[in-house]
Design brief:
Structural class: alpha+beta
Helix content: 40-55%
Number of strands: 12
Strand order of the largest sheet: 1-2-10-7-3
Length: 450
């Protein structure tokens, strides 16, 4: 963290803590230690959704587990909003005109009750990014090695722009069945879609009217682009997710999906499939540079690679918090009374370094017990649908990098400044490395590309 250049000073006392102000990203982990000790349930006066209601930031692992595992008691805000649209009798197109949200509009007719959420995920997304994600291993390996090929002879690389960011972009385009040459356009739309989470203020990620209008302007053409591909794939199906969605018979409604319903799912894939993996990869590279011996350990003990991915996801959660739940009754967390109708901001990044749950939480421990009990992808019935795909991308990426590099270290010119918003990601990451003299002898990453 670059404390010297941050607009915010490093917090020392509880009154110094501001999780959402400018420069807060540079001090999150110092703030979490203070909150765990002094105020594990932080009240944000007037921060709720209804006028006069409050919001509460949960930072303890067990509190967040309790909430995310019970979506009926702790209602999902997006589901509530979709329900309100459905109660108005709006069609998906009418809902889109009102909300400018493809995801919310597409769910109006899909009726996202908790039972149907399971069915939606099982029938529509799991075959491609969940239980069926392993089908993409060879494709991911190909993209990984093609990216490494571009800079392996240089001895140094800006890791984010030349690997961590383009890898999930290429993978998601391949899964959806979009041309690789369209990635720059898809990336622009993806950047626009996450505007609230990058430039929004406060725990509700609020945009000014000008920011919202600019976001919608930047998203112009995205819906039409998806519709064009839906039309083409209905006429000439391929082995990709959009073709699958065009043809699948959705049992919950006993029919096939409409164009806008497909567009909503595609939008969700673009939104969720790029950012998490990008930031995970670049933070993993940083941790390898900061923990001497770990790179060599992983090169010789590949069975520890899964533990490395899980432990780094715990230590440096890509998404640090989301305000996605509301209490339906009066609750008590850590002795703090939380009224019904309060907005809950779940601070996943803080929960992952809760010393009551994780001994020595700031240490990278490849032998840590129950290595995947972090909440980086949430958990329970609303766990991230693409968690399996993201984990696979990370494991394949580092498998190939460990095959093809002898070492990595920080290069020159790093500022350590983080992007604004709720995602943990530096703006750049310059690395120096030594290429392996004989990568084929080390593993399967390179040989699967040859």
């Amino acid at each position: 963290m670059n404390h010297e250049l941050s607009p915010m000073t490093c917090p020392v006392h509880l009154e110094d803590v501001d999780l959402f102000g400018e420069g807060a990203q540079e001090h999150w982990y110092e703030a979490y230690e203070i909150l765990h000790r002094d105020e594990p349930v932080l009240r944000i006066e007037g921060g709720g959704l209804a006028p006069g209601s409050d919001a509460y930031v949960l930072t303890k692992h067990q509190d967040i587990i309790t909430v995310v595992k019970d979506p009926e008691r702790y209602r999902v805000v997006s589901t509530m909003r979709v329900g309100q649209l459905a109660e108005q009798g709006l069609t998906p197109d009418e809902a889109y005109a009102q909300t400018h949200s493809l995801m919310q509009a597409s769910m109006v007719s899909l009726r996202p009750t908790q039972e149907l959420y399971f069915q939606h995920r099982r029938e529509l997304t799991d075959p491609w990014v969940g239980t069926g994600a392993l089908r993409h291993r060879d494709m991911i390996t190909r993209h990984v090695n093609e990216l490494i090929d571009e800079w392996i002879d240089d001895g140094e690389v800006e890791f984010i722009s030349r690997f961590a960011r383009p890898l999930p972009q290429r993978v998601m385009a391949s899964i959806l069945g979009f041309p690789q040459e369209d990635i720059p356009r898809l990336a622009e739309w993806g950047d626009a879609a996450v505007t609230p989470f990058v430039h929004g203020t406060g725990l509700k990620h609020e945009l000014t009217p000008e920011q919202a209008a600019e976001m919608n302007r930047r998203l112009d053409g995205f819906q039409d682009y998806i519709y064009e591909h839906v039309t083409a794939k209905r006429a000439d199906p391929q082995d990709d997710m959009v073709s699958f969605l065009c043809d699948v018979h959705y049992e919950a409604l006993d029919r096939k999906l409409s164009d806008i319903e497909i567009a909503g799912i595609v939008h969700a894939m673009i939104l969720g499939g790029l950012e998490t993996t990008q930031y995970a990869l670049e933070e993993q590279a940083q941790l390898l540079c900061e923990t001497p011996g770990t790179f060599d350990t992983l090169r010789t003990e590949r069975t520890k690679l899964r533990a490395f991915v899980e432990e780094t996801l715990r230590m440096r959660a890509p998404t640090h918090g989301l305000s996605t739940r509301m209490t339906t009754r009066d609750e008590v967390f850590q002795g703090v009374s939380v009224p019904a109708g309060s907005l809950l901001h779940m601070r996943f990044g803080a929960a992952n370094v809760d010393e009551e749950e994780f001994a020595c939480p700031f240490d990278l421990d490849l032998d840590r017990a129950s290595i995947a009990r972090h909440v980086t992808f949430s958990t329970g019935p609303r766990v991230c649908p693409g968690a399996t795909l993201s984990r696979l991308e990370q494991q394949v990426a580092w498998g190939a990098l460990l095959d093809r590099l002898d070492s990595i270290e920080y290069g020159a010119g790093n500022t350590w400044m983080h992007q604004p918003g709720i995602m943990l990601g530096t703006l750049e990451l310059n690395l120096r490395f030594d290429a392996a003299a004989d990568p084929l002898a080390l593993g399967t990453g390179r040989s699967s590309h040859s």
